[in-house]
């Protein structure tokens, strides 16, 4: 049952990343072309801020699930596997949370 949930969540997050990546690409385009005032104005728009926050959280969750599946497939020692999965989940949770907080602050 756990494998089905991971498979389903991996597909759902991949599908969610398709439209959310539009905002990331728009943000990167603005980084190259816009001045500071235009960038802060664009980032302070609620739709843009929410979309980028959602992208950060979804991409971190998607990556954590993907790496967990790889570890489950290729690391045979149960203790090392669980430790590595725990470290990856902790890393991506911290990365997602910090990016979320930083985007909301700015």
Describe the structure.
The chain has 106 residues and is mainly α. It has one domain: 3 helical TM bundles of succinate and fumarate reductases. Helices cover 92% and strands 0% of the residues. The protein contains 4 helices and no strands. The longest helix has 32 residues, at 2-33. The N and C termini lie far apart (41 Å). The model has no long low-confidence stretch (mean pLDDT 91).
Name a few traits of the molecule.
106 residues, 3 helical TM bundles of succinate and fumarate reductases, 4 helices
SSE order and pairing:
Layout: H1 2-33, H2 36-44, H3 46-74, H4 78-105
Helix pairs in contact: 1-3, 3-4
Q: What can be said about this structure in brief?
A:
It is built from four helices and no strands. The chain is mostly helical. The chain has a single domain, classed as 3 helical TM bundles of succinate and fumarate reductases (Up-down Bundle).
């Amino acid at each position: 049952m756990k494998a089905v949930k991971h498979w389903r969540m991996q597909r759902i997050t991949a599908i969610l990343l398709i439209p959310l990546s539009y905002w990331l690409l728009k943000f990167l385009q603005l980084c190259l072309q816009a001045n500071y005032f235009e960038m802060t104005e664009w980032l302070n728009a609620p739709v843009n801020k929410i979309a980028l926050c959602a992208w950060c959280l979804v991409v971190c969750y998607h990556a954590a699930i993907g790496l967990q599946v790889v570890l489950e497939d290729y690391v045979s020692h149960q203790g090392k596997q669980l430790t590595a999965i725990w470290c990856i989940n902790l890393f991506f949770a911290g990365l997602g949370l910090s990016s979320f907080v930083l985007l909301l602050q700015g």
